[in-house]
Structures are given as C-alpha cells and as structure tokens.
Design brief:
This protein is an all-alpha fold and 284 residues long. It contains eleven helices and no strands. It is globular.
Length: 284
C-alpha cells in the first residue's frame, strides 16, 4: 500500500489546462527563488571569502539551483526523471560547433574593424555575473519552461513549438535592460539577438535532454562578452549605442536560431521522442 502511494502520480490540472501560462509562471518563479535564495545565503555569511566574495555567490548559486532542480523533480514525481541527465557529449558537440563559428565571426569583426571597443577585464565580478546568467537563465527559460511545456506538448510532437515559446520569452525579458540604463536601440537588437540565440539553446536542450552543455557554453559566452567588450558593464548591461557590429551580431544570432530549428527537423523526431518519453516516463 505504501508503495502504491509513493508511485501515485500527482494531479496537475492547471499545468494540463494552461501549459503556456504554467510554464512561464514557473520560469519567473524560478528566477525569483534563485535570486532571493542566493542573496539570502550571501547575506547570512558576509565576508566569508573576503575579497573573493564572488566565490560565495557562486556556491550560493549552485545550492539554490540544486534545490530548485530537486523541488521540480519532487513536485512532478514520479513522472519526471530530471533536467541534467541526457546525451551530454552530443549536446556539447551540437552547441560548440555553431557557437565557435559565431565567436570567430563576431569577435573577429570587432577586433579588426572596431578594435578600440575591446577591453580585457576578466575578474571575479565578471565570472559571477556571467555564470549566474548562464546557469539561472538556462535553468528557468530552457529547463523549467520547456520541460513543463513538453509534459503536455510532447504528446503531439510540440517540440519545435516549445522551443519557439521559450525563445520568445527569453528574448523579451531582455527588454528590461532598458530600465537599467541600456541604450534603447541596442536593447531592441539584444531582444532579437537573445531570442534567436535562445532558439539554439532550446534546440540543443530538447535534442540532448541535458541542461549542462547550455549552462556551460552560455556562461563562457557571457564571460567573454562582458570581459572583452568595454560597452558591456560588469552587471552584463550593454552601455554602448547601436553600431554596425551590433547589427552584425544580430545577423549571426539569427543564423544560430535557424540552426537551432534545424536540430529539431522531422528526421530527428524519433530521437527526440525517445529522450522525452523517458523524461516524462509516467505521463501518457
């Protein structure tokens, strides 16, 4: 009898009826919990690492992220098997190839034609900001949002649709940078840039089933972007105005998004189904 209770599937009528609303709410709840929890831990242990306080911030981030992953899996027990396991090696291969081309094109152009905009400021603050963005954004916009959508949508092969919804929400959230002092024109381009890059991360996550490749590559990407360009603050806010390199970056990001859609092409549908039927193993 106790075994029966343990394996009983919990009802999630709101998620079943309103998957888009539920997934977006969970996404923003995850953002709020991660930020609040990490801030709380850093406040409780002030000055623990002295001038290396960014290490405590990263530890706090890891603890709160692990807690969110646990609670999500527990809440959807015994249906859901987790966001971190999957074809991690394949995920890195699928992600690194286009991202390396993107880096070479964008940073190569900037170095050759706009050399004066380059700076080399890699410190603890930059690492903290970049890793926080990489981990939290992937956890919330790819993990919580896409996994919740695919609980229902995978039954009708709605993988591409889930990736697009995730990318749109991810792109639009960057519009908030305008309230933090970012240039309006540059913010508009960043919304497009982030949206299409989000399509790539979504495509890779859906194809490989693990958040690890996207979390790592996203964090490294932000470390380079924040540390290399003087037009980006240590908080990750673009302070510079619209330049041709910003348009060039937007164009190459669109290329990344198209590749993300290509990853979810029909010929790969069986492979994707096999991954997500296991992840939502009890939900028929």
């Amino acid at each position: 009898m106790s075994n029966e209770k343990t394996n009983k599937t919990r009802k999630h009528s709101f998620v079943d009826r309103f998957p888009v609303v539920a997934s977006i709410l969970l996404c923003f709840l995850g953002l709020a919990v991660d930020q609040t929890g990490a801030t709380f831990i850093s406040t409780v242990f002030p000055g623990l690492f002295g001038s290396f306080s960014w290490i405590l911030d990263l530890l706090s981030l890891a603890i709160v992220t692990a807690l969110i992953l646990f609670v999500y899996k527990w809440w959807f027990r015994p249906e859901f098997s987790g966001m971190m396991s999957g074809n991690i090696k394949d995920g890195f291969i699928m992600l690194l190839c286009p991202i390396l081309v993107y880096w070479i094109l964008n940073y190569g152009y900037t170095f050759i034609f706009e050399r004066e905009t380059l700076g080399f400021q890699f410190n603890g603050s930059v690492i903290r900001t970049a890793c926080t963005a990489g981990v939290v954004e992937e956890l919330c916009f790819r993990g919580l949002l896409i996994c919740t959508l695919l609980r229902i949508w995978r039954k009708k092969d709605g993988y591409l649709k889930a990736a697009v919804v995730s990318a749109i929400v991810f792109g639009l959230i960057h519009a908030g940078n305008a309230t933090a002092g970012a240039d309006l024109g540059r913010t508009a381009l960043q919304v497009i840039d982030a949206g299409f890059m989000g399509l790539l991360f979504a495509g890779v996550f859906i194809r490989c089933g693990s958040l690890i490749p996207a979390m790592v590559v996203h964090s490294v990407h932000d470390i380079i972007a924040i540390g290399l360009f003087t037009g980006v603050s240590e908080q990750g806010i673009i302070t510079g105005g619209v330049t041709f390199s910003a348009f060039f970056d937007c164009i190459t990001s669109i290329g990344l998004g198209v590749y993300g859609l290509y990853l979810l092409r029909k010929s790969k549908l069986e492979e994707v189904r096999s991954i997500w039927d296991v992840k939502w193993r009890m939900n028929s």
